[in-house]
Each structure stands twice: as C-alpha cells, then as structure tokens.
Design a protein that fits this description.
Layout (H helix, E strand, L loop, with lengths): L3 E7 L7 H14 L3 E7 L1 H4 L6 H17 L7 E5 L5 H10 L4 H5 L2 H10 L5 H15 L5 E3 L5 H18 L11 E3 L34 H10 L16 H14 L3 H8 L4 H27 L2 H30 L6
Parallel strand pairs: 1-2, 2-3, 4-5
Helix pairs in contact: 3-12, 4-7, 4-13, 7-8, 9-12, 10-11, 10-12
Bound molecules: tryptophanyl-5'AMP.
C-alpha cells in the first residue's frame, strides 16, 4: 500500500523562530518516515507584504537549507519552491471564481493584518487563503501539519473542496480531496517571550519577542535573561493567570525531550533565577545541531540547487495532473 501524503509550507519572510519549528517543522521531521511528504517554501505568499526583490530568492534558499538542517530526509520528503510550480497560481485563479468574498473577509488573519496595514491592504492579502487552498489541493494530501493559527485556513480549504465538487464533480467521483489538518497539542501555539498572551510571530517588531533558529548563544542568553516572567516562585503548567510560566515550561519540555510530568516536578519549587540558565542551556543545545547542519548545507550551494531542481520536477508532475483534472471538470478544452 502506498504511504499517505503530507503537504505543508512556511513563508520565507524573516527568520524561522521556535514557533515555526515546534508548531510545524519538527512535526514534519518526526512523522516523515510514515508519509510521502511535500514541503515547500511559500514565496508567493511572502509578497502579500512588501519584500525587497534583492532578498526574495536568497530568503527562499535560506529556508530550504533550514528545512534540511532541521532533519528533513530526501528519501521521504520532496522540497520545492512554490513559485517554481506555476500550477499554484493558475489553480488560485480558478478557485477564486468559486470562492465567495465574504468567506475571505471573515478570516481572522486577514482582519488582523489588514488592521495593521491600514490603507495599504492589497488584494493578495485578502486572497491569500485561496492560494493556500491551491497549494494544498494540487497535491491531494491526506494530512496538513501546521500550527494552530492556520486552522481557519484549513477549514476554508475544506469548504472550497466541497463547493468545487458540488459544482463540478459527480457525488461518487470527487475531483478535489478533503485534507485533514494535523495540529499537535503541544507547541501548536508558541507564545511571545515579551507577552505570554501573544503568539510568537515573525512580524512582531521586537526581536526580543522570539528566539530564531539561527540565533547565536549570546543572543539566546540575552533574550531569555530579559524575557517576561512573573513574581511568583515555583513554575507551573496550565495556570491561565501565568501564561509566561506555561509557555516557557512548554518550550523547556519540548526542547529537552522530557515529559510534562518530569518538567512539572523538576520546576515546581524553582525560582525564575534558577530556571532561566537551565532553560538557556537547553535552547542552545537543542539548536546547535540545526545551526551546524545549516552551515554545512549553505556551504554547498550546488547540492541545495539540485535538491530544489529535483523537488520542482517531482512536485510539478503531481500538480499539473490535478490542475488538468480541475480544468477538465470546469469545461476547459485541452490545448491541441
Ligand atoms: P507561516 O510561515 O506563518 O508559519 C509556518 C508554520 O509555523 C506555524 N507557526 C506557529 N506554530 C506555533 N506557534 C507559533 N507561534 C507559530 N507561528 C507560526 C504556522 O502555523 C505554520 O504551520 N500560510 C502559511 C504557509 C502556507 C501553508 C500552505 C501551510 C502557505 N500555503 C499550505 C500549509 C499548507 C503561513 O503563513 O505559515
């Protein structure tokens, strides 16, 4: 029996932080041998906010190197750049024309980002979830591993599938496949270091709010030294009054590999002054192998390019097939 398929992606904007790693990439890596994985760099999504043309391609390569550094294995995983497979853009147009505007206006991320951007809201920002639906549907994946913040976009993707199949497919012969989100409980929502009630985010103006995968030991030490805590002695999970305690203990648990119970017992009587150095050492040690591997991959540009060239060809074969099925169902002629 062939393996089930997984598809997911990350935008090449800013540095990858612990939220991206623990909410998404680490889960791709851990589950990769059970699945046939298609993991891409979402560079078309990136331009929904202004990007410097001189940096765009380099950022995609950096992110691809980080995917490899985090442990993606090419025997199980295909890595490619979204803009190299033009079917993503083409399917987006076709799906745009069956997606009601108000579905997009209801998206929480759109509302939040539009609010931040004021007068500068572009159509791409609104349309972003249809592009994301296209990314997914082209590959007919069984599972889409993401962090909690992408859940609503996956629900929209499922609504688009149902609508498309209802309009253009026979009930027993669906053209598009319903994907399942795969959201782990722990790490699905890593919070900011400067405010335990806010998500850790690449777009937070303060660098102190996040730990990036490529931060040096000195930067990690400085950020943890200054991160927000509370005035209570003894650390605990799951107390809604103590979001920072829950967030930092969860990070410590995930990066040390200890169980929740072990961490709860170890830290129940600790003060912050004792916890912070322990946590700092754990973060530095967990990121060291990723940083070393990243350097090795970046030093071999030829290898990275060959990975992405191979990924493009493999991804394109599947994506073009689905696109042809969609166009046929909608009534387009096949070019002669
Ligand atoms: P992006 O680039 O914002 O984030 C990449 C992944 O990281 C997860 N994530 C988090 N998880 C836990 N805690 C956090 N603080 C945190 N911040 C981010 C995200 O949930 C995501 O899984 N639209 C997507 C990229 C995308 C995509 C797709 C994903 C485009 N097409 C198709 C899956 C399938 C995005 O902007 O992710």
């Amino acid at each position: 029996m062939s393996k089930k398929r997984v598809l997911s992606g990350v935008q090449p904007t800013g540095n990858l932080h612990l939220g991206n790693y623990l909410g998404a990439i680490r889960n791709w890596v851990e589950g990769q041998s059970q699945y046939d994985n298609y993991l891409f760099i979402a560079d078309l999504h990136a331009i929904t906010v202004p990007q410097e043309p001189a940096d765009l391609a380099a950022n995609s390569y950096t992110l691809a190197a980080l995917y490899l550094a985090c442990g993606l294995d090419l025997n199980n995983s295909t890595i490619f750049i979204q803009s190299h497979v033009s079917a993503h853009s083409e399917l987006t147009w076709l799906l745009n024309c069956i997606t009601p505007l108000n579905w997009l206006e209801d998206m929480i991320q759109f509302k939040e980002k539009a609010l931040k951007q004021g007068e500068n809201v572009n159509v791409g920002l609104l349309d972003y979830p249809v592009l994301m639906a296209s990314d997914i549907l082209l590959y007919k994946p069984d599972k889409v591993p993401v962090g909690e913040d992408q859940k609503q976009h996956l629900e929209l993707t499922r609504d688009i599938v149902n609508r498309f199949n209802h309009l253009f497919a026979k009930p027993d012969q669906p053209v598009l496949k319903l994907p399942e989100p795969m959201i782990r409980k722990e790490g699905a929502r890593v919070m900011s270091l400067t405010d335990g009630t806010k998500k850790m985010s690449k777009s937070d103006p303060s660098e102190m709010s996040r730990i990036n995968l490529l931060d040096s030991p000195d930067e990690i030490t400085r950020k943890i030294k200054r991160c927000k805590t509370d005035a209570i002695r003894g650390l605990e999970f799951d107390n809604p009054e103590r979001p920072e305690s829950n967030n930092l203990l969860t990070l410590y648990m995930l990066l040390s590999g200890k169980t929740k119970q072990e961490v709860a017992t170890e830290c129940q009587d600790m003060g912050w002054g004792q916890f912070k150095p322990l946590f700092t050492d754990t973060v530095i040690a967990a990121l060291k192998p990723i940083q070393d591997k990243y350097q090795a991959v970046m030093d071999d540009k030829g290898y990275l390019e060959s990975v992405l060239r191979h990924g493009k060809h493999k991804a394109e074969a599947i994506a073009n097939q689905t696109l042809a099925e969609v166009k046929a169902a909608m009534g387009y002629s096949v070019p002669l």
